[in-house]
Amino acid sequence: MEEFTSLPDLASRTFGGGIVHANDEFFAAADHLLAPDPPVFSPRTFDHRGQVYDGWETRRRRGEPGHDHVIVRLGAPGVIRGVDVDTSFFTGNYPPHAAVDGLVVTGYPDAAALRAATWTPLVPRSPLSGDSRNLFTVDSPHRFTHVRLSIFPDGGVARLRVHGEVVPDPDLLPAVFDVAAAEHGARITGCSDMFYGHPQNMLMPGLAGCMGDGWETSRRRDDGNDWVLVKLAAPAVIDLADLDTRHFKGNAPGRAGLRGVDARTGSPDDPAGWVTLLPPTPLTADTPHRFPLASTPAVTHVRLDIYPDGGMARLRLHGRPDEAGAAALRARFAEVSRPG
Q1: Where are the domains of the chain?
Q2: Count of other CB atoms within 10 angstroms of residue 337
Q3: Greatest CA separation found in the chain?
Q4: What per-residue string of b and e applies to 233-243 under the rule 16 or more CB within 10 Å gives b?
Q5: pLDDT tens digit at each of 340 positions of the chain
Q6: Which fold has domain 3-166?
């Protein structure tokens, strides 16, 4: 599996991605492409258009010139590192080739403006396999807000994943925001255990839909505790922490604590540089907990410790980037926004 698949899916509906235009959706709607869940299939399930597919499927072109395409607004604009064109369950009706292009625009242009725009090739016309994940590495240093998937000449695709690094527009961020949010560029850099659920789930938008939509560790049989390390979207002074154990009832942590470190002056590997943000504090099962934090210096990384183990639905850290942190956000945005 390509390394880029561990990065967030910038196009996911979870981030707010959406279909702006599809030239054909005769057999199955393009909205399916962005669903966060894996595709499913029930054989011999028919409606008035034919076999029901959990994906996007166009009609047979019958020798007509051209090809089919769909335009996607990324929910989290950023630098694209790879694309997954997933044709799961499409066997005799998958497209033999596909291409992906990118576009960066400001504001909210309509479909006509996007169709008329000049797009940047990200994945050249490439062969696809049916009923498979087709992974393509993208080599571009620039930030994009939209992608266009073209299939040649027609057929069905189950999912489109656009994996990359979130780069928000600093002008669209409030003064105080969730610096642990994946949609703002925060990410997990280490954890002790993710047996039942990946810790990246804690940083995703919205409320957890179920226990499986969070971070959960296996049961510890020693004297230690589980932990996760978060690289913040920007160096920031954190004022409020939200530790949400929603859906975790018989398996919520008994306690949790937060520590921070400024990697600009120290190292996350050096315990001497860490400051306490929230001392180990009792938690209640299936409950959102909000804790105001004592004033501390700005930090770049936060470690969540849970005692001894268990599950957490969401972690929110509301803070204000310091002067250098705000400058770093703007510098990163400028770096990836230069025309290529």
Answers
A1: 3-166, 171-325
A2: 12
A3: 69
A4: bbbbbbeebeb
A5: 678 999 999 999 999 999 999 999 999 999 999 999 999 988 888 887 888 889 999 999 988 889 999 999 999 999 999 999 999 999 999 999 999 999 999 999 999 999 999 999 999 999 999 999 999 999 999 999 999 999 999 999 999 999 999 999 999 999 999 999 999 999 999 999 999 999 999 999 999 999 999 999 999 999 999 999 999 999 999 999 999 999 999 999 999 999 999 999 888 888 788 999 999 999 999 999 999 998 889 999 999 999 999 999 999 999 999 999 999 999 999 999 965 4
A6: Jelly Rolls (2.60.120)
Q: How far apart are CA 245 and CA 284, in angstroms?
A: 7
How many residues in total does the chain contain? 340
pTM tops 0.90:
yes
Domain 171-325 CATH assignment equals 3.40.50.1820: no
Block residue for tokens 């020798």: 63
- Three-class secondary structure assignment of 178-245: ECCCHHHCCEEEEECCCCCECHHHHHCCCCCCCHHHCEECCCCCCCCCEEEEEEEEEEEEEEEEEEEC
- Rounded to 5 degrees, what angle do the CA atoms 300, 166, 336 make? 95
Helix (H, G, I), strand (E, B) or coil at 166: strand
CA torsion sign, 15 to 16 to 18 to 20?
A: negative
